[in-house]
Amino acid sequence: MKASLLFSLLLAGLLASCGQPEKPAATAPAPPPPVPGPSLSALTDTNATALLTQYGREFPASEVIVHTRLGDMRVKLYDDVPVHKANFLLLARKGVFDETVFNRVVKGFAIQGGRSDHRTIRINRYHLPPEIVPQHFHKRGALGMARYDDDQNPGKLSSNSDFYIVQGEKLTPAQSAAMAGRPLTPAQQQVYATQGGAPSLDGKYTVFGEVVEGLDVIDKIAAEPVGTDKWPKKDVEIKVEVLK
């Protein structure tokens, strides 16, 4: 009797379980959608200008925030330097700068970033054509693109990822005029006198934006102890957020 009752209970449990709908198997979360724009491994010196110009038209934005452990810098990007602007936005959106640090710091001159020993995102070695606009000069907070010197790079082609932000120093009009790589307007000389900058870079490197908030962060980064190669002894990591 007990065996029969036990068998009946087991059979009832089995039938009940057979009647229950099976739980769906857990699924992995969907990967994030790919960032639109040209592939970084496909950009070359030949096609970069056309592809980046088109990208800038399709996915415009004018401001970014550069986040660091020493504070944030809000940066305005200039519309009349379209290739450099689009390139910076593309690399920011694809996370390239988020794997980099400020790798060269020269107090009283500039802080340079965009490089790392641990980058995992593949990026081709393409260059940007110079977009040197006279009204954009190397005042304090100016954002420019690094490049090789004229001996190796007479065309003044810019790097694709190495950028710098000017700290500079205050100079008299006579000093800034003597140092500048091209004629300065009286207004520009006045800015160098009151705000500071690095006029020796004018006319030689492309300026494509400026820090509009967080200028003090430049000074904090510039004050970091550095090694003989000017690389900060404690990494100043970079995260770039595109705002609009």
From TrEMBL:
InterPro entries: Cyclophilin-like_dom_sf, Cyclophilin-type_PPIase_dom, Cyclophilin_A-like. Residues 1-18 form the signal peptide. Its EC number is 5.2.1.8. Residues 67-238 form the PPIase cyclophilin-type domain. Keywords: Isomerase, Rotamase, Signal. One of its GO terms (molecular function) is peptidyl-prolyl cis-trans isomerase activity. It catalyses: [protein]-peptidylproline (omega=180) = [protein]-peptidylproline (omega=0). It holds the Pfam family Pro_isomerase. PPIases accelerate the folding of proteins. It catalyzes the cis-trans isomerization of proline imidic peptide bonds in oligopeptides. PANTHER family: PEPTIDYL-PROLYL CIS-TRANS ISOMERASE-RELATED, PEPTIDYLPROLYL ISOMERASE DOMAIN AND WD REPEAT-CONTAINING PROTEIN 1. This is Peptidyl-prolyl cis-trans isomerase. It comes from Hymenobacter daecheongensis DSM 21074.
